[in-house]
Amino acid sequence: MVSLQGERIYLRALEPEDLEFVYAIENNTALWALSDTQTPYSRFLIKQYLEHAQQDIFEAKQLRLAICNLNDATIGLIDLFDFDIKNKRAGIGILIQDEDQRQQGYGKEALSMLVNYCFKTLHLHQVYANISEHNKASLKLFEGNGFKIIGLKKDWSFDGTKYTNEYLLQRIND
């Protein structure tokens, strides 16, 4: 088993105590464009989600992990989605909640650990990410971890006033 413990952070399964953290992220309208969210989530729905978050990735086809610093404070979330065991691939998304904690190396460490977990433990052949062309920090993060831009989805997302393009990035396990 690959360690999900890094030098400055660790990744762990979601716990019932993460309710308010997940609630704050899921209901922050400034972040909705990152996840294609269009409606708020109730605490009740998030509580139900957390109760079922222990499902095996092979059953749920997704995995959400908390990113925690070594003081046990939750600082973000990292997700595997569209887990496809037949084709041995999954998508990855990541969010560090507070802007002042971004670009401090936490996302880089979390992404590196999750990609390693995907390749060494889940035996995936490839992982991918969908990133807005305007999200320069995420593009730098993923490209710095060996992801390559393999396509541009034109007019992919509509923000209520205009369409924006989205890059598809991919990393294949060598």
Structural notes for this entry:
29% of the residues lie in helices and 34% in strands. With 174 residues, it is an alpha+beta fold. It has a domain at 9-124: 3-Layer(aba) Sandwich (Aminopeptidase). It has a 7-stranded mixed sheet. The longest helix has 15 residues, at 106-120. The two termini are 19 Å apart. The mean pLDDT is 87. One of its GO terms (molecular function) is acyltransferase activity. It comes from Winogradskyella rapida. This is GNAT family N-acetyltransferase.
Kindly list the characteristics that best describe this protein:
29% helix; 34% strand; 7 strands; Aminopeptidase; globular; alpha+beta
Oligomer description? single chain
β-strand percent reads 25-35%
What is the CATH-assigned architecture of the domain at 9-124? 3-Layer(aba) Sandwich
The radius of gyration computed from the alpha-carbon positions, rounded to a whole number of angstroms, is: 16 Å
Helix-strand string: EHHHHEEEHEHEE
pLDDT below 50 for ≥5 consecutive residues: which ranges?
A: none
Protein name: GNAT family N-acetyltransferase
Organism: Winogradskyella rapida
EC number: 2.3.-.-
Keywords: Acyltransferase, Transferase
